[in-house]
Amino acid sequence: SLSTYRFMFMLGQFLHGIGATPLYTLGVTYLDDNVKSSYSPVYIAVFYTAAILGPAAGYLVGGLFLNIYTEFGREVDVTPDNPHWVGAWWIGFLGAGAASLLIAFPILGYPHRLPGSQRYIVMRVSEAHQLKDGSHKTASDPDFGKTVKDLPRSVLLLLKNPTFIFLCLAGATEATLIAGMSTFGPKFLESQFSLSASVAATYFGYLVVPAGGGGTFLGGFFVNKFNLRCSGIIKLCLCCTLSSLLAIFIFFIHCPNMPMAGVTQAYDGSVLPGSSLNLTTACNADCDCLREVYSPVCGSNDIMYYSPCHAGCKMLSTSSSQKVYQECSCILGNTTDVGQATAGKCTSSCQTMPLLMCLMFIVILFTFLSSIPALTATLRCVSDRQRSFALGIQWIVVRTLGGIPGPIAFGSMIDKSCLLWQDQCGEQGSCYVYQNSAMSQHTLIAGLVYKVLGTVFFLLACLLYKPPTPESLPGSSDASENGNSDLQENKSSVQTEMDV
């Protein structure tokens, strides 16, 4: 059956994860090793900005592909505004997969270390969190981490590092929000402003490109511009999270639902008792309308109907590019085109979209503004020999506690606001219509909970961080603090850090 194809999608996502993960662990460490320490946040920011712009551009291009029917050359009666429309979702995977293969070959040619990178390594000053028992000094052994037997000790050192632990947890909460909003952000816009899926995805792409990409780059730029140490970097993350926490209250803003006969109101305009649905009434009782066929139409009275059949329509006009149904017995009013309905949803008259988009821009901007500083703090709060391993552990924590359950958590919250479910042979399918006010409230609750948790975790990481004492640093601490010092001037103070 068609349901077995889901295993093919699961396998594809599994392979995608295997291929992408090293870029965000080994790739980031490779960048950090081969550039000056003070410039590292900027290079990593450029790397992650590209990783943000890619999915954002995917929303824009994907929105265009969704306007193309999934089977080329096949003529269908449905339009992109119809929920039964299936766009050409697979084109993006095909193009991106081919591009990835082409890029992989140059990457294979890179050396272990770029020429001239050794001088940046010897200039590096450790900012690793200092453990009370002094066990952090174990990682400074040149032979540490080269054998599998060092794995338990390496894990133990990271578990004893509270700054690293809370940075991982903060990253997980932020990843939950990013994953949840990436999945359901377009759905939120689609429901609130009565947009088609392709238009909502395009608008969301326009929002994420400057906010997500700009915030990611600016985060790395600020760390470099103000020459922030690990403690200052964590404080910057805390300020960004607090700012986005205040802006998250934008989800109080919502638009009223478009009136829909039998769903949000009765066919005669009266209020439906409770949350019950009543799609059958005297005007369509003889039509034998099927619940399985959901094809919304907008009546000339600005009321939506489940389908032309549920609106009591008897004729279809094909004189124009837009489908117009006529002689609709359920559509009442005093207009000249009484009894008519057009295919698709009614246009929303809600005027809050500019305000909502501006405030969503602020939330996304400050959320991504803390991403590169948090990553830089992770690299600096652990010893140099544990950076790749620490990023790997953090990646697992962020994905396991954030990226994977994020869409599930947001989806379960948003589904609580569903008014009309798809009926698939007696089984509940996807949601057709949401209660906009409840959708905003549940999104606000989910966002508020995770933003508060993120703020608490960054605060604990800042309070528990213990930087190296001046006595523990090699040579003069004043010279070591200056990341732009000339190599010859610092030669005597950093010689002991060289890995010969």
Automatic annotation (TrEMBL):
Subcellular location: Cell membrane
Domain Major facilitator superfamily (MFS) profile: 1-466
The UniProt record lists the keyword Transport: yes
The entry's keywords: Cell membrane, Disulfide bond, Ion transport, Membrane, Transmembrane, Transmembrane helix, Transport
Ranges that cross the membrane: 6-31, 43-69, 89-110, 163-184, 204-224, 236-254, 353-377, 389-410, 444-465
Biased composition annotated in UniProt, kind: Polar residues: 474-500
Coiled coil: none
Gene Ontology molecular function: sodium-independent organic anion transmembrane transporter activity; thyroid hormone transmembrane transporter activity
BP-aspect Gene Ontology terms: monoatomic ion transport; sodium-independent organic anion transport
Main location class: membrane
SUPFAM superfamilies according to UniProt: Kazal-type serine protease inhibitors (SSF100895), MFS general substrate transporter (SSF103473)
InterPro entries: Kazal_dom (IPR002350), Kazal_dom_sf (IPR036058), MFS_dom (IPR020846), MFS_trans_sf (IPR036259), OATP (IPR004156)
Region span, Disordered: 470-500
Gene Ontology cellular component annotations, sorted alphabetically: basolateral plasma membrane
NCBIfam families registered for this protein in UniProt: oat (TIGR00805)
Name the UniProt record assigns to this protein: Solute carrier organic anion transporter family member
Organism expressing this protein natively: Alligator sinensis (Chinese alligator)
Source organism phylogeny: Eukaryota, Metazoa, Chordata, Craniata, Vertebrata
